[in-house]
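Folding follows sequence. Below is one example:
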Amino acid sequence: MAEENSRRKWNPHAGPYLGEVSSLAFLNLPQHVSSIPYLFAGSGSEILLYDLSSGELVRSFQVFEGVRVHGTVCSKSFVHSAERYTYKLVIFGEKKVKIFSLIVELASSSGEISVNLENFESLPRLSNWVFDVCFLQDSTGSLEEEDKVLAIGCSDNSLSIWDIKESRMAFEIQSPERCLLYTMRLWGDSISTLRIASGTIFNEIIVWRAVGLDGDNVDHRHYSASHMLRLTGHEGSIFRIVWSLDGSKIVSVSDDRSARIWEIDSQEVVGPVLFGHSVRVWDCCISDSLIVTAGEDCTCRVWGVDGTQLEVIKEHIGRGIWRCLYDPNSSLLVTAGFDSAIKVHQLHNRGSKMLLDAVGVLNSPDKVEYFSTCLPNSTEHTGLTDSKSEYVRCLQFTQEDTIYVATNHGCLYHARLLSSGNVRWTELVRIPEEGPIITMDVMSGGKVRESCALDDWVALGDGKGNMTIVRVIGDMYPHAGLNQSWKASPERQLLGAFWCKSLGYRFVFSCNPRGLLKLWKLSGSLESAAETYDVSLLAEFSSGFGKRIMCVDASVEDEVILCGDLRGNITLFPLTKDMLHGVSVSSELKIPSLKYFKGAHGISTVSSLSVARLTSNKAEICSTGADGCICYFEYDREMQTLEFMGLKQLKELNLVQSVCQGVQFSKDHPNNDYAAGFASTDFILWNLTAETKVTQISCGGWRRPHSFYLGEIPEWQNCFAYVKDDVIHIHRHWVGGQKTKVFPLNLHTQFHGRELHSLCFISTDTKAGFDSEESKISDRSSWIATGCEDGSVRLTRYASEFGNWSTSELLGEHVGGSAVRSVCCVSNMHMMSSDVPNLPDVCDQDSAVDDCESPRLLISVGAKRVVTSWLLRNGRHKKKGESCISDNGHDRASSEVSPVTFQWLATDMPTKSRPCGKIEKSPKLEGVEEDTSANVTKLGSNTYNERENYEDDWRYMAATAFLVKCVGSRLTICFIAVACSDATLTLRALVLPHRLWFDVASLVPLKSPVLSLQHAVVPLDPPHEGNTSYSDVYLLISGATDGSIAFWDVTKCVEAFVKQVSSIHIEKYIDCQLRPRTGRGSQGGRKWKLLGSKISKRAQENSNSVGEAAEEDPASSLELTNDHPQENGENEDADSLPVTSEIKPSHVVKNAHQSGVNCLHVSRSNSSPSYGNGLMFNVISGGDDQSLHCLSFNILSSSNNRATISEIMDLNQTPSYRIMLTDRGGIASAHSSAIKGVWMDANWVFSTGLDQRVRCWFLDKDGKLIEHAHIVISVPEPEALDAKAIDENRYQIAVAGRGIQMVEFSG
């Protein structure tokens, strides 16, 4: 009884919803309170109130239960009492209407505003959906009677009048044109002036009004509908109608991709039809000078009243922009859509046009400064060039007002941007023989002397092969303090000059077209008055690829030099401290490469490189390239290994030139990452954290001379310069230290733009208790991975301490944009005893096995049979002590430890010639009592031949994964079970760190496709004192569309594969130094490969062909034989055909559900069996038949088993363990519709279904389910559920569908 009373205290509480935004409305406060309106946004069942002047969320209110907010209308008038303002607020959704009192209080001392919402009245449920509401005055027009009547427009083209004062429905008016509507809008301030515009499914707009015999007196119900006019012209259904302020015009948008402006008096279209959207148009708004439309193509278009398209904004993703709103007083434009984001832009009037600034600051008269200038000696140039004309070869920003310019005549100029809009030029130096300057790099220095405000070092390389170093010092009028030149290369052989900030001004690099890098040292005292320095060649570094080096970085601590070349290759060279302090060496001495990574960016140019310290012996390398990707590598100095650790692909950029990080100057402004690059002919600065475009400048492409400079807050401080027709064009946006709000704003966290199919919590260390430090961090934040229909995978943070969704990061997309059907997190490592001597890949013998680094992976599967793995990169350190100034990728930003994030590790998918390997059906399995032993057979060679001639479009429906490592081995193997829509199950393996894919086993298919998968790893004999062996049983559990649940024992295959792979040197046979394919054309195709048992002989005989084949397929899919490869080729079966295991189900529970098993979950039970010491596991399942079903099983070691044979089924040919299965029954009608997600632990079961309920069930000691509570959620069409225990008294339940919502369950 005490336990039952304690359980009664447990209750669920609905948390915030992150999904589609369905309504927008302004709240206009008195001018002395706020000149900028507040914004109401309806999302799910919540109303969010934002302060647009600060961009902060003021309050959120839960207004409905399970009903989405479709519209919000605020009264124009208010009741004023002291510093308190009371408005009437009407919120409607579906068939519900509620009236609230909105109370705004102004604190006289601090000036802060507090807002509260009180429920004034809830109207009875209407018979039709509500499309619009409008406050009306009574016929008396007195202020006391104002807003006492509410007009409600419904989807059947009817009008209802609600008397607010009397709390009753006064009367209803039915239009004579009774038909189904998609939209209705009301205009007017009284019943007599009320106009109703209805958009029908017949592509027409019907305008009608209410006519009464007694004026506006609602006490008399003598009202009827009077038809005014019918507007025709659209060729599709009408989705949205808006009235102009004076009621003389309406704007309509339709399924025909157009917007039309109608004149009410003339009943005709005014002006041209607005065509521009490529798909359906969802919403529109109108003001005196412009029209705004928003559509399914995720664009918001601004039009002039004459039909001219003024601006196109595209910052949303997914199914489109559903709502747009424009305030003419503040020129603020708000857009919101399916992706949960709310974007705020500011339009500005320039002449006769309304334009949108790429970046704007509220109340700032000048948003962007534009400079246009020419070289000092070409002011009268007409734009026609000849061989003797001087033109710009290189330019580079060093400060927001300083640019260095180098020309083909060998001149170096200093250009200062003045506040007056002019440019002051200073000629610094003219190199000898006036050779054309080919390359330039600038290292900006700090103040050396109090009188010296400028101290920059410029490295120049000319066409004659000379290297020139210029030190620029000075204050207002800079001059060259040092001018040192020497012969660095033969003529026309000097193509690159590079500084490295970590090495300082005394060391400079030069390179030639064939990848030869030279390191030069400047000797001499910085403070001396000497005009020259001694220059010595320290070393030459020869790249094995022979391609031009495009970027260089170095780290003294990690003793490494990084080079990226023209063809996407990255090469590492040793950099010792003795080398830096040594004397000049002979030019014949060339230092070979230390490590390399071929095709890091495909065949595209590596545009920037940076290295950051991870640990005392490990460093992270970040590279960007012309393939639009950011790649991450890990370099181990002691092991001298370079491993690919992940990548991020940016669809918005074709070329990523550099990445940097802003400075967190306040708690409200996060530490954002930025990428600068090009998309076609435009320069784009992209916020990687907020996924928003900071600026976009049309410049003609990256091949023109250009440069950019970013300040601490790139939204406020960014400069870009480029050359076109011998004119230097400069765009500068530089706001000082004032903390002004910058537009565009992203008010709400951006999320997926389409439906979600799967989600999972990123698990913490399960070995840690609730009092551990990691558990305390998890208590403050929860990280959830989600997979979407559009192929995207995101990582979203839920801040438990604040109860809101704080950030959402796009990890990447599946190759080809294939829909993600299932995601799972893999973190627990399962160790396996090794009986293989002399393992090739071993951990440090001085460290314990547990000390070997265990990766944490995220696995996602989906359409086109794509499997993608993501690697957790938690606590990544970056460079410290550097400013956030980035120019052409040479500097990295300062930061603390980065938050939890995943990086793309490897992707596997079949080529068009590779099928899913469907095999013949197994014999029919009858009854629950049926026992079948695990069967391992060999497939003939015809399997591979059939693959070559077979094409399909199957998709993976479910996946589950677990990590296994052999004791003493360095390799980690992630086993991934995937269920395909062709009714097959496959066990695959990803071998780390080599990122190689293998087929391990084909699980004999049932007659129906599998919809859900789970695994259980049961420790039979855990290691203890005196026994260090590991003995685990690996089980897979599947639920199919025919309602059956199958159990599969894959222990033998897992053990054999782990031991076989751990005993060979994989990297000797396959080139592992390749990145995964991204879907970009530079990565090429793949081929399905087989790895036979005679691999060592083939590798020796055809080493070149193996290397070339592996180069095509960076993460090759392979089949491994069950025979161990012999180094000397002594295996008798060396010529046998490759084999793969075929496993039949150990047991099938038929008719567990009457239809498809949509979800499964496995959890260890607290109950102990009465026999032996086996562990008990519970399996919960949910299906389309609306039922929950519970099974229990426990595996017993044969030595401890006392049960009879009739009670037990044998899962393995070796009788080392046995299983007992118990059917616990279930709940026949657990939900009122199909169940889509379940989760359980030892005490509780949580489930969700299409009825938009989360139900909490208590699991008693007999395995029976007892419903404890339920809650209505805001997520439409739920598809998945996951949960985790925060502590002993609190759970978090996440539900995903059309959005995501968190539910707290605590007691």
Observations:
- Helices lie at 2-8, 577-581, 773-780, 942-948, 1051-1062, 1095-1101, 1103-1112.
